[in-house]
Amino acid sequence: MKKSSTARTAARPTRQRILDAALTLFNERGPDHVTTAEIARAVEINEGNLYYHFRTKEALVLALFAQFEADALAIVGKIDGADEGAAATYAGFLRLWFSLVWDYRFLFRDLVGLVSSAPALVEPVRTISAAMRLAVGDIVARMEKAGLAAIPEEERPAVLTNLWIVSTYWASYLNLQEGITEFGPPQLDWGLKQVSSLFRPYLSPEAKAELEVLLVGEP
Hints:
It contains twelve helices and no strands. By secondary structure, it is mostly helical.
């Protein structure tokens, strides 16, 4: 007999259940508008149990960032061993990255406030940003080797920097500049279209075709 979803949830370690609940609530309303009491209720534990695992909300945010960092590095690892000559490999990477940013959108949407309330977040953010920018540069180099992209040497630094900024901080831009607080599929599509506009001029016809498939969804 299969276990019910409730039984499966209860079987997960309490610490992970706390992180999952906090991630959902933080994404919905932002850390500043979520109390530890609400997180405890969502997990169906008392606050004392929550504080046993995470003494402060800042500790929760840092743990979620560490989880995001591990997931981000895992996505980069998927490129190794994949078909480096196939445009779909890189379109798939872009889709996975945007999905990850979406899954942890509070980190980017609320970044300015988070850094202010959780100063310990500054160095981890810088570290993963540097690592991912190097990874993006490596991925673009692989695309060029496969004949899928060609970026003039003098344009490369600006293109790579802009790709990283747009693909990572699009949610923060929409929140701070456009006043958008409710995020859904239209905002995710908007972000994908913005970063694709940076890529498109340098792509081969095959890579452009895969990019269009990415933008309209799975065929």
